[in-house]
Design a protein that fits this description.
Strand content: 25-35%
Oligomer: single chain
Number of strands: 10
Strand order of the largest sheet: 6-7-8-3-9-10
Radius of gyration: 18 Å
Helix content: 25-40%
Number of helices: 9
Order of helices and strands: EEEHEEHEHHHEHEHEEHH
Largest sheet: 6 strands, mixed
Length: 242
């Protein structure tokens, strides 16, 4: 049997006024892949991820999660999806545990199921030491782990993570990388970054977007071989507008 497709972009376009932010982007990601969504700042990574999650409606094209169209049946698609926006959903006066309980209730989780998942994600994201502290008083690393825990709380099959290591120090980045690798053993993961060092440690495939258009789809080693290194390939692919 063929591996089912868990993330699908089919001719996605998004226009804001006269600006075309995403240009006819198409790709599929099967179950069990960890894919890096690479590109410079402003390339269209965040907009594409918002289209994939149903957060933003496309001008043209379709996006599907686990075969479900995110525009026509967003709630059903959301049951299969965990989404970490670049600036995760945080309320500074709440505690990580309080936030997770809130999102769990919003997803209809309760009783033993909710308690089980709360314990699991607090351990996975190493939040035990700060679970009862106000989010506004936490370090950047803990503030990044809290929305990550929210994204995986309902144990989704698909994770879409937008710049999960942004602003973290090297030790914190190492921890997030390890968590993504662990999650990738059982889930389909699409993680965006503009940091080349993030690609090879976590992903077996790269989607490279530039000027709103997909310009490369392949393995990190293949991208590095094109011009001798990931850095050179990055420079070449982004040297001219599409």
């Amino acid at each position: 049997m063929s591996t089912p497709v868990m993330i699908e972009a089919d001719g996605l376009c998004k226009q804001f006024g006269s600006f075309l932010a995403v240009r006819d982007v198409s790709f599929t990601i099967p179950r069990g892949q960890v894919v890096a969504f690479l590109g410079p700042n402003g390339a269209g990574k965040t907009t594409t991820m918002r289209l994939l999650t149903g957060f933003t409606a496309p001008t043209h094209g379709e996006a599907r999660i686990a075969g479900i169209d995110v525009q026509t049946d967003r709630i059903a698609a959301a049951e299969h999806l965990g989404y970490l926006p670049e600036n995760g959903p945080l309320y500074p006066d709440m505690t990580p545990l309080g936030l997770l309980k809130f999102f769990g209730a919003a997803r209809g989780m309760a009783g033993g199921r909710l308690r089980e998942r709360l314990e699991a994600v607090v351990e996975q994201c190493a939040l035990g030491a700060v679970a009862h502290k106000a989010i506004g008083k936490l370090s950047k690393g803990y503030r990044q782990r809290t929305p990550m825990a929210q994204a995986i709380l309902h144990d989704p099959e698909v994770l879409i993570l937008d710049e999960p290591t942004s602003g973290l120090d090297p030790n914190q980045i190492k921890g997030v990388r390890a968590l993504i690798r662990e999650l990738g053993k059982t889930k389909t993961v699409l993680v965006s970054t503009h940091i080349l060092q993030e690609v090879e440690p976590i992903a077996g495939r790269v989607l490279f977007i530039h000027d709103g258009k997909l310009v490369f789809d392949g393995e990190p080693a293949e991208l590095a071989r094109r011009d001798g290194s990931l850095e050179e390939s990055f420079y070449k692919l982004t040297a001219q507008p599409v």
